[in-house]
Amino acid sequence: MEESKYWADQVADKIIAKHPKKKSYSLRAGLSSSGIVHAGKLREPITVHFVDSALRSKKKKTNFYCYFDDFDRFRKVPKNVPKEWEKYIGMPLCWIPDPWKCHKSYSEHFALPFKEEMKLLGIKPIYLSESEQYLKCVYKDEIKKALNSRDKIREILDKFRETPLEEKWWPARVYCENCKKDTTQIIDYDKNYTVKYTCECDGKTRKLNFSKKGWIKLLWRVETPMKWKFYDTVFEPWGKDHFSPGGTFDTGKEMIKDIWPFESPEFIAYNQIKLKGQGVKMSSSAGNVVSPRDLMAVYPKEVMIFLYAGTKPNKEFALPLDDDYLKVFEDFYFAERVYFGKEKVSKRDQQHWSRVYEMSTTPLKKMPIQPAIRTCIEFNNIFQNPKKAAEKYAEFMKVAKSKRLEEIMVCVSNWMKKYADEKHKFAVAKKPSASGLNANEKQALRDLAAVLKNKIDEKKLFEQFYKIAEKNNLKTKEFFRACYLAIVNKERGPRLAPFILAIGKDKIRKLLEKV
To answer: How many angstroms separate the Cα of 185 from the Cα of each of 166, 216, 264, 421?
Structure first.
């Protein structure tokens, strides 16, 4: 079989070549639970998901870990959180109460909804809570190693710093047993499992045996290479900023040479995701976020995953919620037709788009219906109910009812309500008006009303439009404008013949007679 050019398959091949004798492969993605895990943050775990899928397609066993950094300190109070939460700054996220009082903690408030969203997308990693790992003392020996290697770690970090770290620097921070904050300073260590520390809360000296009580956390740059070794990591994607000179990637590679001897995992730098038209990355603190659930409301899950699968992780892309929303479906449908051999493309494109499609969904045995999105918009406008719109679409287009049709109709309806431009929205006028119409246009509408008294199909009705326009000395464009103004109070609208028949020619006839 020809070697796949799809990026996830190439990463999988590198991993297998690097570790040919491994019985299973561990892949990791990390997430902060300090705010909404938005669609931009989804890029890290979904990147791992694609590589995991590629490895499994090659009959390899995998462990896909997704960990939440819920033992990180609370750094600042977001705009949507009460100002009084300032009193928790310095505490671990897992110990802070939920301001919205619907979850056990601040971190759980953001972690649990994301887990539910991942499940809906069909992505099922092994979740790890860093607070649980630390508090169960799982990392006690690694913390001991880091503290005993303090001088070596400081030497590594100083290579990339303009100002050397202070002598009192330690590669870990203790959470005070009195105030639960990390406003502490380690002042002594017994080279085993016990540290002495002081805290700003009262200045007292306390002891902590971290083999029994895990109220201590390694600093990020130290924790990262430790976890590579601890979880036998073969792949981990990172945001591109971590690959800057002297970043976490550089310091981590130095630490796994001596402190945690380990072969560097395969990495891939992923770029940010923006909201189309905003030009800035999504940020919980800025309030310009779209969650995976928000996307799933307007995109079927396979189309949503296609957004990520069809773009290399190192490429920036914008989430289309404007008119390009329609193009996303067109691109997905194209990939689907390529997969089922319904499009004539080059061998390379056949292989690429088929693989993108496989990564986006579990293909059926035969190509499913591809509802035209513009027509779905029209039917949603006409019937103002996605379920009714799906029924009428199936009836009018002479296709079988399907789960996909109903799902897409609901998604399109949601998009129209929340994101669509006004030009996509219309409704049949309740009180028709002749305002803006001249005598010829009014007569043309009377002629159309007369035609609608007879039994007529779409083709014949379409032919009548041109005859009526010609009879009344109107350009076709002027005739259609008059019809739309009378029927939907706009100068433009949906395809007129199917629209009239879908609404009901008697209803439209009565409306035109009133005009």
So the answer is: 12, 11, 32, 56
> 314: which strand partners?
none
Residue range(s) defining the domain that contains residue 178: 172-218
DSSP line for 199-220: ETTT--EEEEETTT---EEE-H
What is the DSSP secondary structure assignment for residue 21, as one 8-state letter?
T
pLDDT (tens digit per residue) in 227-268: 999 999 999 999 888 778 888 889 999 999 989 999 999 999
Are 405 and 369 in contact by the 8 Å Cβ rule? The answer is: yes
CA distances (Å), 301 to each of 55, 133, 307, 329, 457, in order?
22, 32, 10, 12, 37
Cα–chain-centroid distance for residue 466? 47
**How far apart, in Å, are the Cα atoms of 455 and each of 277, 444, 461, 462, 471?**
48, 19, 10, 13, 21
Same domain, 205 and 224: no
Query: Mean pLDDT in the chain?
Result: 94
Whether residue 96 sits in one domain with residue 65:
yes
Give yes or no: residues 51 and 110 share one domain: yes
pTM: 0.92
**Is there a single domain that holds both residue 475 and residue 394?**
no
Q: Does residue 87 sit in the same domain as residue 226?
A: yes
Helix (H, G, I), strand (E, B) or coil at 63: strand
